[in-house]
Structures are given as structure tokens and as C-alpha cells.
Amino acid sequence: MAETETRLTDVFVELTDTLVADFDVIDFLHTLTDRAARLLGVAAAGLLLTDPHGVLNVVAASTERTRLLELFQLQTNQGPYLECFRTGRPVSAADIPATAARWPRFAAAAGEVGFASVHALPMRLRGEVIGALNLFNVDPGPVDAQTLQVGQALADVATIGLLQQRAIRRRDVLTEQLQTALNSRILIEQAKGVVAERLNTDMDHAFTLLRGNARSSNRHLSDLAQAIVDGTERLPA
Q: What is the mean pLDDT of residues 27-54?
């Protein structure tokens, strides 16, 4: 119990400490999904956020298959995360195959990538919902109440960081930052593809290399991705 509480404290300190004047939004959101998956003991985590027009976009995922599944959900306009976003309430599917009548295309796609359960937690501040944090497992079954409570707390910390911190300097600053993050996401996906192809590796490993190189050189992921795509940067070793 003491070890768990220590790890929980460390994660919250890390997330809070990331919220400085010029923090890297993309790296912050990926930190959230990585830490959520590890801390909560789930197979993977993904994050969807709204753009300035209120449209949901996939902005971070702890694994490549998670990102692809979330993109598929948005394309088909069905699944637990969309329902979570629209209602502002948690949505759980403890046995995804059993939801085939409710979300047929999502259930089939989730099964293909090996996920058997999912739990979507709203990213909200008071009455405003800006996205959803999604927790995936390869085995069916519910997540205990305490785990969901901690997951919701992580989502709340991220929401406050994205809304409240930037709202100090007006909401339009936040809107611009979120839009920049969404634009950067496209560039990072292109860079992942370049690295994966040239190093003959998978997309997950390619992103790990990109992210590690950006951190070690104290650069934003988007800046490194631009250099990789432009061909002005050597590929990370």
C-alpha cells in the first residue's frame, strides 16, 4: 500500500510539475497516457481532446494499436469514448464482445487488436467536457472503483492543467495551444513513419526513439519531427 501511494504521489507531482509556462503539450499528454496505463495496471490508455470547433481528435496513446482503434472509433462515430464525451460521465464496457449490438463496428475492431474491455473517463471541469481518457484491457471484466477513482483524478489533473492554467492568460491561448498540438500530431505521425521505415522497426518503437531523442536534447517533439520529415535531422539511434 505504501509503495502504491508513493507511486501515485510521484505521478501527480510529475504531471503537476510539467505545467510550466512553456510546457510541451504533446509530451505532457503522452506522459498522462503512459503513467495512467502503468499506475492503473491496464494494458493501454488513450486520450481524445476537442479542437477549437468542439470536434474530438486523438492526441495521445500509450501504444500504436490504441491510437489506431481510437481513430477508427472517431471515423465510425461509435464507441464508449464518444458516449463518455457527449454525456460527461464515465462509460464502461467490461466485455466488449457483448456490446456488439450497441457498437458493432467498434466491438469488431477492438477484438481484432486484442482488447476485451474498455473504460472511458471524462476530462471535464465543472460543466465543460474537453475530451476523454480511455483505459483498455486485454481481458474482460470490470475495473474496481478505486482504480477508476484514481483514473478520474488523473484526467481531472490534466483537464485543470489544460484549461485552468492557460485560462489565466485567456481561453483563446488554450485554444491556440490545443490546435497547435493537433497540428503537431500529424507531423509526429509522419516522422514516426519515416523512422519506422528507415530503421525497419514498428511504429511504437519509432515513437519511443523520437520521444527519447527530443527529451535528451531538450527539444519539443514537433520540432524534432519537422526536422526528421524535412531530412535536416539525423535519425535517432
A: 86
